[in-house]
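The data are quoted verbatim for completeness:
=====
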Amino acid sequence: MIFADYHVHTGFSGDCETGIPDIIAKAKQIGMKSICFTDHNDMDYPDTHEVIDFNLDIDNYIETLNRFREKTNGLDIRIGVEQGVMPSTCERLDSYSREHPGIDFIICSSHIVMDCDPYYPDYFEMCPDEKTAYRIYFETILHNVTHFHDYNVYGHLDYILRYGPTKADNFDAGDYMELFEEIFKHIIYDGKGIEINTGSLYRGMDFMHPHLDLLRLYHDMGGEIITVGSDTHDIEHLGYAFDRARELLLSEGFKYICEFKAMKPQFISI
């Protein structure tokens, strides 16, 4: 079974140059029936290292994808956004889908903490140690799920592990379980979900986001809404390791994945 890929970037993202037609062609080639484009919108993204425009041209984006939707046969195109959220932008972004009709799906992602993207070493240099750096990042997620509601799933919950000095070598989910219990309480109560993000696998990690212990906690707390996304910025990784994602979900007791239309979940048996 080939899932719809619900984390896909194109040239509308400031860090990507891949064309929409190329992704559509690849999706058809590998047998996908549906796909959701989720280009970056990171309001107030800092330009401390390199100037990248992460402000999504949302009106042009929706119009462009609607044109492809009308002329593309055999592939159900959904329009999504990866919304980069931080405490200072929660309120300003909390009506985004209502302000821009036509959006099917929003990923809420944490890319910026303390005005810095953990992609860069600066973030870890500001923290006394790696464990504290991770805790501050997860505390920011808790703030976001408490104050921001205009999203469907929280993306790559432990994104920070991609870039830590030792990545996940010294990561123990037990050190942060009380935080994630609160995070998942808010996510589940709010009718939201999380994603399985396979992008960590082709970035040299040996697990998908989120870490297995966090995925199990989400399931044990009653979490049901879950999407699968490759986080691809090219055609090579579209649908990457989705067979492994399916095996993982089944082994952990999940029976469905979700697709979204007009911000509403559609449960698909796996």
